[in-house]
């Protein structure tokens, strides 16, 4: 399968986004068009996990800022190490789509054994000790080596937070594989090989070039990011944008409930049963339980979200933009908390010459 056909097939997978209609590239205007152009320029293809945000342009820009400035842009960490973090976080979040994508990317960067171990759910079998430790840290099961500089640790933390966010959106809005269902089983191995080659990054683009997509904010950015850096600015802008849409699309009582539940959570999946959520949701008025259920499941168990959850919210008059905004707000709330739980994450005082 030729690379051009794979790119075409990936664009067609935008039709497979569930519950909302993603903006087609030829119809993109304004901010959506600007983000699409940057994604294709810097990421190499219009990735469905980014494009699914397009019904909500500000959220689309926020998602791209977090992905670009953490994973794609130039920094001190290698792209291969950042792909290890992305794949390991995705495995911990039971997001097979993202595990497959970033496993292929990792394999294209010369780490097929690490990719295979993470995809198999056995990161402990990664041959290289440092790579194994990095994957364990990303899953919240170990500490980074003491000799990892604070700036590099910040980049790893940024990737982890970005993928705790993206995994949840992908679990809600996409299927289990980046390859379209139209690709026959006999061609999937070859298609994966071609897609893996396409995912191999070239030279990393300069940091900060996407910042202009969203307005500046007076917030300092997350405490783990170097103060004044493009990384801090990107996450500050993205967080401000998603918090703003959350105020519009998520009822205040739902926001309070999700924040409280996430704060008290240890990050471990609640399991396969959905019964855990009902006693919590009982405190909401009936008119807000559909939104509360979707937000709470997105935050703590996005793999449990099903068509009925989205349909219940849509039945109350929520449009595509509102649905994306609700899910995005809940996902970012959980992702920020997941970043705070990571062991040995950098703090502002770890950066010489910087004041928090």
Automatic annotation (TrEMBL):
<protein>
    <submittedName>
        <fullName>Carboxymuconolactone decarboxylase family protein</fullName>
    </submittedName>
</protein>
<dbReference type="InterPro" id="IPR003779">
    <property type="entry name" value="CMD-like"/>
</dbReference>
<dbReference type="Pfam" id="PF02627">
    <property type="entry name" value="CMD"/>
</dbReference>
<dbReference type="InterPro" id="IPR004675">
    <property type="entry name" value="AhpD_core"/>
</dbReference>
<feature type="domain" description="Carboxymuconolactone decarboxylase-like">
    <location>
        <begin position="60"/>
        <end position="110"/>
    </location>
</feature>
<dbReference type="GO" id="GO:0051920">
    <property type="term" value="F:peroxiredoxin activity"/>
</dbReference>
<dbReference type="InterPro" id="IPR029032">
    <property type="entry name" value="AhpD-like"/>
</dbReference>
């Amino acid at each position: 399968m030729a690379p051009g056909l794979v790119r075409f097939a990936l664009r067609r997978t935008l039709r497979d986004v569930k519950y909302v209609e993603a903006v087609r590239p030829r119809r993109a205007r304004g901010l959506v068009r600007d983000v699409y152009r940057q994604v294709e320029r810097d990421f190499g293809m219009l990735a469905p996990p980014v494009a699914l945000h397009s019904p909500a342009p500000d959220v689309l820009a926020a998602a791209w800022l977090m992905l670009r400035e953490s994973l794609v842009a130039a920094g001190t960490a290698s792209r291969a190490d950042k792909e290890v973090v992305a794949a390991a976080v995705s495995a911990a979040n039971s997001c097979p789509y993202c595990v497959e994508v970033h496993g292929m990317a990792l394999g294209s960067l010369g780490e097929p054994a690490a990719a295979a171990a993470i995809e198999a759910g056995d990161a402990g079998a990664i041959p290289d000790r440092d790579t194994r430790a990095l994957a364990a840290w990303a899953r919240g099961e170990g500490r980074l080596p003491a000799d990892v500089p604070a700036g590099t640790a910040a980049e790893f933390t940024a990737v982890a937070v970005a993928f705790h966010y993206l995994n949840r959106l992908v679990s809600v809005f996409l299927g289990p594989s980046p390859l379209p269902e139209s690709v026959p089983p006999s061609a999937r191995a070859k298609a994966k090989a071609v897609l893996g080659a396409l995912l191999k990054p070239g030279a990393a683009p300069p940091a900060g070039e996407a910042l202009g997509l969203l307005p500046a904010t007076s917030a300092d950015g997350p405490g783990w990011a170097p103060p004044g850096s493009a990384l801090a600015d990107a996450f500050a802008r993205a967080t401000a944008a998603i918090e703003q849409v959350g105020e519009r699309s998520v009822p205040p009582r739902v926001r309070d409930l999700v924040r409280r539940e996430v704060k008290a959570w240890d990050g471990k999946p609640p399991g396969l049963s959905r019964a855990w959520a009902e006693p919590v949701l009982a405190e909401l008025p009936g008119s807000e339980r559909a939104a509360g259920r979707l937000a709470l499941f997105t935050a703590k168990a996005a793999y449990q979200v099903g068509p009925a959850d989205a349909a219940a919210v849509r039945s109350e008059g929520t449009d595509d933009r509102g649905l994306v905004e609700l899910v995005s707000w809940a996902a970012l709330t959980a992702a920020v908390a997941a970043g705070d739980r990571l062991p040995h994450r950098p703090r502002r005082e770890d950066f010489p010459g910087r004041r928090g």
